[in-house]
């Protein structure tokens, strides 16, 4: 049972998940719902946004979710409803502070999306709006969602809160993915685990397409956590190793034929030993 209904998650290539707050109230307004694909209300209730995720896949389509300036293509926008009237310095959480129960549901929602779309938990692929400028180098207009969690003052700042999200999403996803051996045997056969696995043009690269669950691929190389795979159509692409189950090792080497000279040498040795014991 996933926190997000499957029909909210059409199978299209998506590259990353960007987390936000709405700067509104704890309930999602119509305006809030037009800006994001998925929203989490103050009590942890998950709400579907107006734009469907596929409107942000590939070339942007009319009615897409405009959640992150110049970074909406292939980006899923998930937002926590709240922080109306919040002030950054000196910090005030305003009229609708984010809540712990809301955060917990948000983590589950991000994990469900990451699993569905085969998005690895890396700082470039699962991040908050506040991290976009620093991590992806795409200028934003002083966005500070989310650099503070009103219910947990222990970590503040874009990186601290982003790392907390990635840690908790990783935990929420564990037990679902099958950890492949490391290094992954080149020449082996892998099987695609998620419903739609993003393929990329290099490690951490741009999304080039997606492979369906169960597709068999040939593993032709590895670079850290990224596997170079050959698709059934013969394309060489890259995918994160967490989403490929190794089902078959590399083809076995031909058993080496015994060297016929070996037997003769062994026989001569035995004969020499025999001569020695005869005291010849
Ligand atoms: Zn935002």
Question: Topology of this protein?
Answer:
Elements lengths: L15 E6 L8 H6 L2 E3 L5 E3 L26 E6 L19 H18 L8 E3 H8 L21 H16 L15 E4 L3 E5 L6 E6 L3 E8 L2 E5 L5 E5 L3 E5 L11 H18 L3
Parallel strand pairs: 1-4, 1-5, 2-4
Antiparallel strand pairs: 2-3, 6-9, 6-12, 7-8, 9-10, 10-11
Helix pairs in contact: 2-4
Q: Give the rounded overall mean pLDDT.
A: 89
CATH topology of the largest domain: Lysozyme-like
Query: What is the alpha-carbon Rg in Å?
Result: 27 Å
Structural domains: how many = 2
Strand percentage: 15-25%
Cofactors and ligands: zinc ion
- The assigned structural class equals alpha/beta
The CATH architecture of the largest domain can be named as 3-Layer(aba) Sandwich
Reading off the top of the CATH hierarchy, the class of the largest domain is best stated as Alpha Beta
Number of strands: 12
Give the terminus-to-terminus CA distance.
Answer: 85 Å
Oligomer: single chain
Q: Give the strand order, joined by hyphens, for the main sheet.
A: 3-2-4-1-5
What does this structure look like?
By secondary structure, this protein is of the alpha/beta class. It has 2 domains: 6-173, Lysozyme-like (3-Layer(aba) Sandwich); 179-280, Roll (SH3 type barrels), CATH 2.30.30.40. Helix content is 24%, strand content 21%. It contains 5 helices and 12 strands. A 5-stranded mixed beta sheet has the order 3-2-4-1-5. Strand 2 and strand 3 form a beta hairpin. Helix 2 packs across helix 4 (158-173). It is elongated and about 105 Å long. The protein starts with 15 loop residues before the first strand and ends with a helix. The mean pLDDT is 89. Bound molecules: zinc ion. Zinc ion binds at residues 20, 129, 143, 145.
